[in-house]
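Final report, results section. Input specification for complex C-07:
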Amino acid sequence: MSVMTEVTIFVLAIFVGFEVISKVPTTLHTPLMSQTNAIHGIVMLGGLIVLGYADDGLEYVIGTIAVAFGAINIVGGFMVTDRMLAMFAKKPKPKADADGKGGAGK
Amino acid sequence: MTPLAVLEPGGSAATALYIVSFVLFILGLKQGTHPTTAKRGNMIAAVGMAVAVVTTLLLDGMGNWGLIIIGLAAGSAIGAYASIKVKMTEMPQMVALYNGVGGGAVALIAWSEIRHGISFGEMPLEDLIPTLFAAIVGSVSFWGSNIAFAKLQEVIPTRPMAVPGQQFINAILGVGVIVVAIIIAINNEPPSQALFILILIAAAILGNLVVLPIGGADMPVVISLLNAFTGLSAAAAGFALQNVALIVAGTLVGSSGTILTMEMATAMNRSVSNILFSGFGGAPAAAAGSGEQRPVTSIGAQDAAIKLAYADTVVIVPGYGLAVAQAQHAVKEMANQLEKRGVTVNYAIHPVAGRMPGHMNVLLAEADVPYEQLKEMEEINPEMSRTDVAVVIGANDVTNPAAKNDPNSPIAGMPIIEVSEAGEVIVIKRSLSTGFAGIDNDLFYEPNTSMLFADAKAAATEIAAEIENL
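Structure output:
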């Protein structure tokens, strides 16, 4: 991939990013941040590549830490975002729903 | 030992799968524009990540599986544990920490890339420049985020801390880092590891020094900015590794952090550089309380309950004090009692309420407040004149009419929640002490304002009980 191809992708991604993210309402900014933390965990790919091809002691250490850091981002980021969004997705009247289901069962 | 290897590194198959993964990231973020679809969007993005990770694990020639498994297991365990245990009030710290480890990972990867360059005898500039950039930004974000975390967790004082001549030292460090990076780039056959480590260390000191002088109230901006930095560093690592998934994902994160940084700065009516270099948040301003005692109206929980119960519309204005007092559930209970009596309750959320963008919304969502009732500042301000009672809980500067009326105020021009437009205002606060801006709040002395001096949680609980007994 040539440098200019990479720059093209980069510039287009800036526009996509601004377009998509600017539509996220203020209410969801905290989950947005933790979700982008998770997406940032993509750097774990770099860590995996470093570690997967490493052949000396220092590289083993650097690679393992980088992979662990990336995994913290990915797993922690997606999980905590899910936890937060579950609070927003909750139905306003959970009791009524439960009653409805109970009634249908009978 | 490469039983899994099937994909050629940099080949069409691997790249195609990376494209699939970043498409899923974009689709996931698009779903994040509405509370009801955001959860699914998060899942879609997570699937994208799984595709990217599996693709990388399948690359031809990958080895050291033992260490890969150790790294994955350790990181996943820490991440999972933290995400389950973290309290919603602690989300700013958590995001700061995630920014930090993300930046740290990038700096480490950059170091390893430099070592590869050295072993090849030289490193082409198109790889070296993004690697140096990733190292610098990654190191600054790692150390800056750790300081932000320590301040938010109150391991170190949240007030601004500055050493004499700090700006000068920062400038020297900043310029020094760039000069050394240029020296490495010029003598790239091979690049010098010693100079590279020098850059990492200088950037680390810079990260510490830039965040240390920033006060607690400016944390939303700092966290957003560090978020943008980590994103950019990931994109730079993508250039160095020639990996489209990293370039696109990093850029998305960078865009998000940049947008949030700009929104936060606008909400405080200050420029980003002013926030970073003035150490304003938490500094006592000279203008604080010029000695004159102005009269205030003080009421008890019972009076407040009566005012609220006989209103038609109530707007609750929560601030960071609500989060500190863990009062979100008590406030929701108070709102429940009001709603039982047919009172319409809404919440007015200032963009910088809390310690990070959208923090207050999450705290209220945790207390089961339906998101329809969470109103943004622009949405609620026109409604204020039609509101019977506004209840300010743990918020201060964001309600100060001086921002609108007094051009000489330190917060002049800052957009505020216009509570003084409401029929009556009840301010629940421990004392008349100043907010983060260190200035007196004119709101407290207005004729239609009543002060309820109490802890936010205790007061809300008491008012809820009083309303029930009416």
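Chain B is about 55% helix and 5% strand. Chain B touches chain A through 109 residues (CB under 8 Å). This concludes the modelling results for the funded period.
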